[in-house]
Design brief:
Layout (H helix, E strand, L loop, with lengths): L2 E8 L2 E10 L2 E11 L9 E2 L2 E2 L9 E3 L26 E7 L4 E6 L7 H13 L11 E5 L5 E6 L4 H12 L11 E2 H12 L7 E7 L4 E7 L2 E5 L12 H15 L7 E6 L4 H10 L4 E4 L12 H5 L5 H12 L13 H6 L7 H89 L6 E9 L2 E8 L4 H8 L4 E10 L2 E10 L1 H4 L2 H4 L1
Parallel strand pairs: 1-7, 3-6, 7-11, 12-15, 15-16
Antiparallel strand pairs: 1-2, 2-3, 4-5, 8-10, 9-10, 12-13, 13-14, 17-18, 18-20, 19-20
Helix pairs in contact: 3-7, 4-5
Length: 511
């Protein structure tokens, strides 16, 4: 992932902490202080250490005004030569009072975010603060419905300084994924990295050059966040002032005891630590020095000054970890920052091309939709046709089966009719044979056969003269032949008579 640069504007100093994510953990890779000309003396006391000692390794880049530029507009960053490649960073600015204001809410249950924001906006409207838009209302959920409501201004000076930095480095824009609350990021870092006990009150004190922040929390919930305190490390008798302000804020929050105090920022001076101990003698005091982060790449001077970069370091760590804790998911970016971070920075031609691309995409999407619709309709029709074809094949097979049965029935009927008519004919023929009295004429019929030529009757007669008479009895049948044969030493006449079916009436029997 890209390196992360936490940024905090502390008075006239832009403090930058550059962090990276390695396999072994998060590393503080560099610390920078970028100063403008607003400060009168660049060698002011740095809480007991001379600032010149912190100029090593380009930690502090001091911008000096050219005599040639004194009469014209001055870009305080144009002479920077030692700043790393800013295109390789994600810049995460953090802001605090007076650019954001806080309210601690404990009476809103787990409602949807949109409803919570509406309710918080109403409460800000009823507060002494001047509020204008619900878009500027953000909030952070902690435990047990505890909410830190944040109202942010439209303008953040730290963003303005980053814009100047952008111009001085001749880059189009900086990558600014989000803007975070410095107070919330620091509190979240302390809760995640220190042994926080239940039912104990904790105080975080951040001492800057010109302002101080005090945050009270208990059971991982905010209980009091101080308003803007306009004193810092450059204030005269800062130790006494800080001690009195701690007592005042405790009284304001109706707190009578603090279990542990976390000191950070410009707190290296031993007098500050002693003043806090004298104010709360029973409280444990811990200086936030980010011991769990690797500082192997820093010089000794920079390691000594790590606590002074508490806000930008805590903010960068908060962004890198992207913890599941809801209190860490917030973005205070003004609308202009969000707009500037859009993926495309387009001119008139660019917008025209974008519109054209959208039209083309809509056209192809519509075409795809209608093609898909036509395909679905065709598939439905094909399914219907296949079903109808299957039904037709079924009915056709039924018809073939019925036709076969009907043909069989007709053939059977023909056979039955033939048998019926033929049996009547055969009975008639037998009656005629019986009427002739073959026995009296010494004649015998040995076979009666149907042939293509008619009805063939074969028989035997003792007397030859009876054969023509028999043929005439059978409806003028024709004698085909008469043969003489001996049967048992006696001569007999074997005859064959053919009766015409049409004449005799046996045509039905031959069908």
């Amino acid at each position: 992932m890209k390196k992360v640069a936490g940024v905090f504007l502390d008075g006239s100093e832009l403090k930058v902490a550059i962090l990276g994510k390695q396999k072994e953990g998060i590393t503080i890779e560099d610390l920078l202080i970028i100063r403008s000309l607003n400060e009168e003396n660049s060698n002011k006391s740095y809480n007991g250490a001379v600032k010149d000692a912190l100029l090593n390794d380009a930690m502090e880049l001091i911008i000096e005004e050219d005599e040639e530029q004194a009469s014209g507009e001055f870009n305080p960053f144009q002479t920077l030569t030692e700043l790393p490649d800013i295109n390789s960073f994600n810049f995460i600015p953090c802001v605090s009072e007076p650019h954001v204001s806080y309210q601690i809410i404990n009476d809103i249950n787990g409602a949807p975010s949109k409803e919570v924001r509406k309710e918080l906006f109403k409460r800000w409207q009823n507060s002494p603060k001047s509020v204008h838009s619900m878009d500027n209302v953000n909030f952070i959920r902690t435990r047990d419905h505890n909410i830190l409501s944040i109202y942010s201004n439209e303008f953040f000076p730290v963003i303005k300084q980053l814009e100047k930095l952008t111009n001085s480095q001749k880059v189009k824009r900086l990558k600014i994924p989000c803007v975070k609350s410095a107070d919330a990021a620091l509190t979240s870092y302390i809760i995640d990295n220190f042994d926080i006990q239940n039912e104990k009150v904790y105080l975080t004190v951040h001492l800057g050059h010109e302002s101080t922040r005090m945050i009270f929390f208990k059971d991982e919930k905010f209980i009091h966040v101080s308003e803007y305190l306009s004193f810092g490390s450059q204030t005269h008798d800062i130790a006494e002032v800080l001690a009195s302000k701690i007592a005042y804020e405790m009284d304001n929050a109706q707190l009578y005891d603090v279990y542990q105090i976390f000191l950070c920022g410009e707190v290296a001076h031993h007098k500050i630590i002693e003043a806090v101990k004298n104010t709360l003698p029973f409280a444990n005091i811990k200086i936030v020095e980010f011991d769990e982060l690797s500082t192997n790449g820093l010089s000794d001077d920079k390691k000594y000054a790590v606590s002074a970069f508490t806000f930008p370091i805590a903010t960068a760590v908060n962004y890198i970890k992207q913890s599941k804790r809801k209190s860490k998911k917030h973005d205070l970016s003004p609308k202009m920052v969000k707009d500037s971070q859009s993926l495309f920075q387009l001119g008139i031609i660019g917008y025209a091309i974008l519109i054209l691309m959208m039209i083309v995409m809509v056209f192809f999407a519509q075409k795809f939709y209608y093609n898909h619709k036509d395909i679905a309709r065709s598939e439905k029709i094909l399914t219907t046709k296949n079903k109808e074809a299957s039904e037709l094949i079924f009915y056709e097979q039924r018809i073939i089966d019925l036709q076969s049965k009907m043909t069989q029935k007709e053939n059977l009927q023909v056979i039955v009719d033939t048998l019926k008519i033929g049996s009547a004919r055969w009975i008639d023929l037998l009656h005629q044979l019986n009427d002739y009295d073959l026995k009296k004429s010494n004649m015998w019929v040995t076979s009666i056969l149907l042939s293509k030529n008619g009805i063939n009757l074969t028989g035997v007669s003792v007397a030859r003269k009876t054969i023509p008479d028999f043929s005439q009895h059978l409806a003028q049948s024709d004698i085909k032949n008469i043969l003489n044969q001996k049967i048992r030493e006696k001569k007999v006449n074997v005859f064959e008579i053919v009766a015409d079916p049409e004449k005799f009436g046996y045509q039905a029997s031959l069908k």
